[in-house]
Amino acid sequence: MKFSENWLRYWVASVMDAKTIMEKLTMSGLEIESRQSLTPNFSGVVVARVMSISAHPGADRLRVCQVDAGTGELLQIVCGASNVTVDSRVPCAMVGGSVGELTIKAANLRGIASNGMLCSAKELGLSDDAAGLLILPSDAPIGMDVAQYLDLDDIVTTLKLTPNRGDCLSMAGIAREVSALTGAPVTKPEIKDVPVAFVSEHIVRIEDSQACGLYCGRVINLSRPNAATPQWMKARLDRAGLRAISAVVDVTNYVMIEFGQPLHGFDNDKLTGDIVVRFAKAGESLRLLNGQDVNLTPDVVVITDRQGPIALGGIMGGLGSSMKPVTRSIFLEAAFFPPAAIASRARRLGLTSDAAYRFERGVDYGNTKLALERATQLIVEICGGEVGGISYAQAELPSRDAVLVRPNRIERVLGIRIEEKEIREIFSKLECGVQTVELGLLVTPPTHRFDLTIDADFIEEIARVHGYDNIPTAPQLAETALLPQPQRVRDSTEIAKQFVSRDYQEILTYSFVDPEWERDFSPERQPIAIRNPISQSMAVMRTTLLGGLIETLRFNLNRKQERVRIFEIGRCFLPTAKSDQAAELSQPRRVSGLCYGNRHHEQWGEHARVVDYFDVKADLEAIFHNVKLTFKKSEKPILHPGKSASLTQNGHTIGYIGELHPQLCQKYGLPSVPIIFELDLDPLLATRIAQYQELSKFPNVRRDIAVVIDDHISAQEMIDSLYSSAPASVRDIQLFDQYRGENVGIGKKSLAFRVVMNDTEKTLTEEEIEKIDQSLKQTLVSLHQAQLRS
Question: What is the mean pLDDT of the chain?
């Protein structure tokens, strides 16, 4: 919600400075997102009237203007703008003034004296329009400072409102909040009922109370349909983020910003019969103001006449019944549509409108007729004409049920005691009805507050207006006890600390992701689509954490970061047979990581080396040292074939590790290949309680076993086979050498294993050692057809 602070001062003339007021709004929950000063970058610029124009004798594109700038004598100014005309009123920079960094001086342009400069909107810094001079309204006072005339001593403020505070999407709502926080009274604009000249020709009806609670409309016959919108209204609309279009449309937008009530004007000559509000029927369609054709569904509210739908209720008008600049008879509507009848319909139809934005949050139905009268008053003042009586239909409106608010509960929730007098004053400032009963206060919310339904809501209002800063911080008095820490389960926080200790940085990314990420990084799964996505790039729930990691890598690479080591712990969302029910979704926790660039930071003590598969594998083995992880060669579509592996635990695959596939690196513009991994977290959190093992007093015995095997047999398979047949005295088996070459033949490789033996009770004899050695060799020969090397 954007608004002019000067406009706010018209509503609430508080003696507090603007900065203090904005701080109070922020502390009360209405966050100030930004404040933009409109202070001009020019001085000495006044309103001038062009009295006469003649051709420049020395230049075809220049003209010599005689200008009345309110000095008592005409100024001669040479101008090259194509839109300058006699009797037009334009900004004139006087000699001695300044426009931006340019100081205005008397000049001689091709032999003709020029005493000033006629200015465009771009030159004054008011817009990007440089097509010609800024043409001011014909009633602009000659000689008046342009900055003062355009009310440029102003600040445009943007409120970052939460969805529950739709009541603050208007000047009336913001003024109400400022009044409650500062104590300054609210001055509402004077609204006079325009005399009714004739009876309305349209009867309005509401067929379904769920579609509309209140509908008002009236016919206005205009005498000056082409009248210009006043400059003051254009300025306020512009500072509210709306563009001036035509007088009637501008008035409806102005009243919407003023009171929060959307209005819409129809071309009355294009309407026939009664105006009916109902839900759409199957097969109906409508062409909207933006030219879009929509097929209507039975849950969409429509405004209809005898011929069918003429507008989407609370969203957008139809093109066939829309007003034109020459329309002389309009039917002006103001209505209340329940939030449930409007919510999500606009986005589902691919539409955005200020009306839908307000109706789906709740519009004050107590102001519906008042807003119609205000718009009528302004339209007649600007365009002239006669008005008809109001056609009125009311169905079911939201009930304003009183809620019991007890003083002892207020004190228990807020931790402080607030006097009943102050509580009543706060509710009165918020326009709530208050009645004293035996148990406390019976408070009735106003028609503009749809978020006040239970006692906790009213207690929050007390805290907001009383001031969070005025609630003292008190030490905790409740007893606390340390929760038991199970030894069989590691905490995910501990895992995160382990990654950080190994030079990784933790990231947090959104669970809503781009569908293209899912197609690229999780092609084997169909993600769950969001019914009402924030944007197309956040349209599905993630089934992998990898998309966020790659996007974070790209973000860092674009900012000249050459070494990136990141990880994330989070949930993924996997569809099941009953994926339409949230309770049936599978939401496993996963840990995923990415390494890119050099293994270590640049330093004098080590040569630069790009991180590889084995570096990341070592990180995982160190962090999950308490879990028996097995790395097995495998192929995954997103990983480089031949440079990837699956991770298994107790025979179950729990993740993968490897280089990102070259095609994906190319698609996402990665200069080098990152190493990535993703693991199911919960199986890795299970741990074994440490068991005491006696230290051996006897020396270790080492034996090496070298074999030649087929190249397709992995070293891990052989190590697993050795452990399966090894006696208890075998303490460790490790691969320490690997060789491929002419000496072992094509399709073969040589592997050498180190076997460490030890017995805690005695020294192993040579006979026992030899027996174990032969048993292990026989295992490799029989299971893997290995050839022993001497």
Answer: 90
β-bridge mates for residue 277, sequence order: 206, 303
Conformation bin of residue 717: beta by default, left when phi > 0, alpha when psi is -120 to 50: alpha
**Is residue 105 within 8 Å of residue 119, measured between CB atoms?**
no
Burial letters for 96-133: b for 16+ Cβ neighbours within 10 Å, e otherwise? ebebeeeebeeeebeebebbbbbbbbebbbbeeeeebb
Residue 17's identity, in one-letter code, is D
Each residue's pLDDT tens digit, 331-359: 999 999 999 899 888 888 888 899 999 99
Query: Is this structure's pTM higher than 0.85?
Result: no
Partners of 571 in the beta sheet?
589
Distance CA 589, CA 568 (A): 10
Which of 534, 192, 248 minimizes the C-alpha distance to 383? 248
Alpha-carbon gap, residue 426 to 467, rounded angstroms: 11
CA dist 227 and 247 (Å) reads: 6
Q: Which helix (H) or strand (E) holds 735?
A: strand 730-739
Rounded-to-integer distance, Cα 299 and Cα 345, Å: 8
The CA angle 622-627-630, to the nearest 5 degrees, is 85
| Closest to 403 measured CA to CA, from 449, 459, 441 | 441
Distances (CA, A) of 247 to 225, 233, 379, 447: 8, 10, 7, 30
Contact call for residues 700 and 757 (beta carbons, < 8 A): yes
Cα 169 to Cα 204: distance, rounded to the nearest angstrom: 28
SS (H, E, C) 757-788: ECCCCCCCCHHHHHHHHHHHHHHHHHHHCCEE
* Neighbour count for residue 63 (Cβ, 10 Å): 19
In sequence order, what are the residues at sequence separation of 6 or more whose Cβ sits closer than 8 angstroms to the Cβ of residue 221?
A: 328, 329, 385, 386, 387, 388
- 666's enclosing H/E stretch is helix 662-667
